[in-house]
Amino acid sequence: MSAVAFQDCPPDKPHVTGYDEAHLDDYLRLLDAADQGADWREVVADLFAIDATREPGRAQIVHSSHLARARWMTEIGYAYLLGPRPN
Questions:
Q1: Considering 1, 31, 34, 50, which has the largest number of Cβ atoms within 10 A of its Cβ?
Q2: What is 17-65 written as a DSSP string?
């Protein structure tokens, strides 16, 4: 889990945010787990310290929203990391 607190849903912005940058390691771990076919409940427990048995709805939202943002980073967001930074 990142040292920076996580939100239930990452910001849905058309550019990389400070939140994204703070959670790049988490995004990579989510992508690796998905590629390996890991159980999402174990992943959300490990990365976000959420028990999917106790909070199934929240756990699913946290996992799916962060995984979607991680995938966005691999398709679009990475270009913002390579280019000039907005002020």
A1: 50
A2: -HHHHHTHHHHHHHHHHHHTT--HHHHHHHHH---TTTSHHHHHHHHHH
